[in-house]
Each structure stands twice: as structure tokens, then as C-alpha cells.
Design a protein that fits this description.
Length: about 525
């Protein structure tokens, strides 16, 4: 059964159908996932360019080093930028690099583009905007700060809903950090917790110009339909652009869809042509070499053993690529395949739950225990959110038991004193394999918000290289080592008591967190 045929009914018109070469031409095993390139660009790279990071401190140090050494571009997309000393140090690194670029001979080459969420980035008197305004004032020609505002927060709702709660309607949730041709994909935001004791996932793609170009164009596209931060801390739309909450909602969403799909489709076309050219070159390689000598061999890149697929999810704009690919991966996972799936906020969509409970693969699902939930100890109503997650987890576990699936579907809770848990993604182990050949890494949490409300991006990394597979396996093992298996006894512990009002309210509000 073709994975591509499974996707066909779900496709939106902007995604053209490309006839892929027969699978018999593809390497067996790891690269059975070439159907994904029917939806998004496929970037073939060497596994030596991929580095998996393991700690917040490593992530933070890498950000600083990359900012300081960037010569052409720094592009950062995040939910928000924090306001502490560590975040100020990042801003200082940006200022230092921009200053260096300004002092260099000729016109300054370094360009900095930052994309954040408007509501989260505007929260409080000291916020992401006030942190970045000095850069705009000092380097107006080199710095751009875009603040995405969901088109679903408008009119009376926008006037009535208070700060913090307004973030439940929809957010810019993409986390990508790129410096010249180096790209970091993560689920981590630019905040001190994510640099110290909030566990996430991080992968560095080095010397990958095509991937860096793609994410630069994607951030530019979202930036173009976002509010632009000004030097006096006001915001305004680019000239000729529809306003996200004052303008016509349908027109705004159509414009945004067109801009983002242009990026995806033009990159896909470029990569298809490159793939065809490379394939043709490899077929003609021997005759070319005999005619052109060693020069030709020097120009040929090594064969890729790793493939990167960017998966975008922007339901407000009618873009559902990540959802389609994730659902197909879960559907197609064979008996005895193992899927390790992790999320900091366990609130799976009904479709994902049905696929996990109704398909044949083994699942090991890692989620946050209440004490390492990011909302643990929060003031007001937010303090009840960990209990709501416990309730959702208990309901799912009860369903697993009812269907006698406890052996096949196992829940595990991450627990680590003094830490919180924010890691998300999955690792896929084919039947009979002790190493993963595919991972998903990025911003989505596999919940309703990720699928329906927020702007999300992750990458599927598919590799045949055993050393990279080992890196991914070690990353998975390191996270799961800090966990305990969930059983019926788990929910009898005193700290798992869920108040009646939380049980009653959770079904009504679960689509907002």
C-alpha cells in the first residue's frame, strides 16, 4: 500500500502531485520514507554534518558561539525572548557581531532577522520587545524584528481576553536558530530556563546552505505577514499587507498561505531539479570522468546518507503538512516496529490517539510527571494545569488497559529533581533494528494546539548512517533513563489526586493548552 495514496484525500490544492521514482530505486530500509518529498523539499546531506546536542547549557553556549562567528545572517524564530541576564548576554552577542560588521570595510554584510509571537513577546512591562528595541535603534538597516499575531484573536475577543489568557488562542511556536549555513532545530525557546534546567531536544545541521536558505525564506514569509517592531516600541504592518486582526481574516489567511506555500514549493522544485541532476550525473559519472579527468571527480559531492524533510503545520492558514506526515508515519509503522514518542505536554489529538491504539507498532510514550511539568507551582488557574494533564494521562492509560494494549503501548514519566521537561518528537525503529532510522524534531507537541492553533515546524531526519543512528539512539536512551513506567498504582499516589472541578473543566478547555 502506498503512503502517498493514503495522503491523497487530505491534500490541499497548493500541494502539487509529483510522480516519484519507483521505490525499487531507493535504498531499502531507512529510506523507505521518500514519499515525504511529494509534499516538501528533500535535502540530502552527509551525516557528518548532523550533531545531536543533549543539554540546555550546550545549547546556550552553541547559540553564543554561532552568533559571534556569523558573517552573513542570523535568523532566529522562537515563541519569545526572556528578560534575564542570560538572554541579555545573547542580545549583547548580537550587538557585538553587528558592530563588528558595521566597522568592516564596505557595506555591512550581517543581517539579523528575529521572529517572535506578538502576545507572548509583549507580556509584561519588560518583555521581548523592550529587550530588542535597542538593537533596532542602533542598527536600523541590519535588524528586523517581526511579531506574529494570530488572525483568530480579533474583535471583541481581543478586547475582553486578558494578557496571558490571550496566548491560548494561537501562537507563533516555531523554534529555529540559524547562523550563516548552520541551522539549529529545537523545541527550546530563548529563555534562561531553556539554557539551564529545562530539558529539551536540539540538533545542529552544519554547513547546510540549502536548508538554511529554506528556513530563512520561511521565517521571512511569516515575518512579511507579521507586525514589524519599530524603534519606539510600536508595531506596524509592512506596506500593502493585510492586517492580522484589523483586516479581512480570509484575505489575510489566503495571503499567508500563498507566501508560505511559495517557499515550500519553490524549494521543492529546486531540490527536485538538483536530485534529477545529481541522479543523471551519477549515471553519466564514468564517461564524464574519462572526458574531464580528476577535475570532475573533485566537483562531485559525496553521496548523501541522510535526508532532511521540513514539516510545516499552520492550520490557521490551511497548511497541514506536519499532521499528514505524522499520521502517515503512525499508520504505516509495521508490526514489531518501535516508536518512542515524547511530549512535555501530553494532550494528543484524537486522531493520534486512535492511530496509536489501533495500529501494530510498539509505543513507548515519554511525558512529564506533574513535578517536571512547566506549569507546576504556577499561580492561579495555571497551577491546576499539571493536574489536568494527569487527568488526560489517566484517561488514556485507562483506554490502553481496556483494550488490553499495556504490553504494546507503554507510558513513561520523566522525573528529575530541580528540572522541568519540554522535550518533544519521536524516534522510529524499524522491525528487527536496534537503532532508529528516523526522528522528528522541532516545535510540535502532538496536541490539539500544535495541530489546529499554532504555527509549528519540525524536521524529519532520515538516516542510513550507523554513527548518526547511534547518536539518535543515545539521545533517546538518555531521556528515557530519567523515567519510570506508568501503572495503575501511579494514579493512586497522593500527588496524583485530581480535584472534581479540574475533571469537569478539563474536557472544555483541553483544546487550549
Amino acid at each position: 500500500r502506498s503512503s502517498w495514496l493514503l495522503l491523497a484525500p487530505l491534500l490541499t490544492p497548493p500541494v502539487p502531485v509529483i510522480t516519484a521514482p519507483p521505490c525499487s530505486l531507493c535504498p531499502e530500509g531507512a529510506h523507505r520514507f521518500q514519499w515525504i518529498r511529494n509534499l516538501v523539499p528533500e535535502f540530502g546531506i552527509s551525516s557528518s554534518h548532523v550533531k545531536v546536542l543533549s543539554s540546555p547549557a550546550e545549547f546556550y553556549e552553541l547559540l553564543k558561539v554561532q552568533i559571534k562567528t556569523a558573517k552573513q545572517r542570523v535568523v532566529m524564530a522562537s515563541l519569545y525572548l526572556g528578560t534575564g541576564l542570560l538572554e541579555q548576554e545573547l542580545v549583547d552577542c548580537l550587538e557585538e557581531s553587528l558592530e563588528k560588521s558595521l566597522q568592516a570595510k564596505g557595506s555591512p554584510n550581517l543581517r539579523v532577522s528575529i521572529l517572535l509571537d506578538y502576545t507572548r513577546g509583549s507580556r509584561g512591562r519588560k518583555n521581548s520587545r523592550t529587550m530588542l528595541v535597542p538593537l533596532l535603534q542602533r542598527f536600523p538597516e541590519q535588524v528586523r524584528v517581526s511579531l506574529f499575531h494570530t488572525p483568530n484573536l480579533r474583535g471583541l475577543l481581543r478586547l475582553l481576553i486578558p494578557e496571558r489568557l490571550n496566548e491560548t488562542i494561537g501562537l507563533q511556536h516555531i523554534k529555529v536558530y540559524l547562523f550563516d549555513d548552520n541551522v539549529i532545530l529545537s523545541g527550546a525557546n530563548l529563555s534562561d530556563l531553556y539554557f539551564t534546567n529545562r530539558q529539551d531536544r536540539y540538533v545542529l545541521l552544519q554547513d547546510s546552505p540549502e536548508i538554511a536558505d529554506f528556513f530563512t525564506e520561511l521565517v521571512d514569509a511569516i515575518g512579511d505577514v507579521s507586525l514589524q517592531l519599530q524603534q519606539d516600541d510600536t508595531v506596524q504592518m509592512m506596506e500593502g499587507m493585510v492586517h492580522p486582526y484589523q483586516g479581512d481574516k480570509v484575505a489575510y489567511c489566503e495571503t499567508a498561505n500563498r507566501r508560505v506555500m511559495e517557499v515550500i514549493n519553490s524549494a521543492r522544485t529546486r531540490q527536485e531539479l538538483l536530485h534529477a541532476k545529481t541522479f543523471h550525473s551519477s549515471q553519466q559519472g564514468s564517461s564524464l570522468l574519462s572526458q574531464q579527468g580528476s577535475q570532475a571527480s573533485g566537483a562531485l559531492k559525496p553521496e548523501p546518507d541522510t535526508w532532511i524533510y521540513p514539516l510545516i503545520q499552520m492550520k490557521p492558514f490551511g497548511i497541514q503538512i506536519d499532521e499528514m506526515v505524522t499520521e502517515t508515519l503512525l499508520t504505516e509503522a509495521e508490526r514489531d516496529a518501535r516508536i518512542y514518542l515524547t511530549t512535555g505536554y501530553f494532550n494528543l489529538t484524537q486522531a493520534y490517539m486512535d492511530l496509536i491504539l489501533g495500529t501494530r507498532a510498539e509505543y513507548r510514550i515519554l511525558l512529564a510527571s506533574p513535578e517536571v511539568n512547566g506549569f507546576f507551582g504556577a499561580k492561579g488557574v495555571a497551577g491546576a494545569i499539571p493536574a489536568a494533564y494527569v487527568y488526560i494521562e489517566h484517561q488514556f492509560y485507562s483506554e490502553v488497559c481496556y483494550l488490553h494494549q499495556q504490553e504494546r503501548v507503554q507510558l513513561q514519566e520523566y522525573s528529575r529533581a530541580g528540572w522541568t521537561f519540554h522535550a518533544k518528537g519521536l524516534w522510529l525503529y524499524l522491525a528487527g533494528s536496534d537503532l532508529p532510522c528516523l526522528t522528528l524534531i522541532g516545535s510540535p507537541n502532538f496536541g490539539y494546539r500544535s495541530v489546529h492553533r499554532d504555527l509549528e515546524a519540525q524536521v524529519a531526519i532520515v538516516t542510513e548512517n550507523r554513527a548518526l543512528q547511534q547518536q539518535l539512539h543515545q539521545e533517546q536512551e538518555q531521556l528515557y533513563l530519567c523515567s519510570g513506567v506508568v501503572s495503575s498504582a501511579t494514579f493512586k499516589q497522593p500527588n496524583r489526586y485530581v480535584k472534581l472541578w479540574v475533571k469537569l473543566v478539563t474536557p472544555l478547555i483541553k483544546n487550549f493548552f
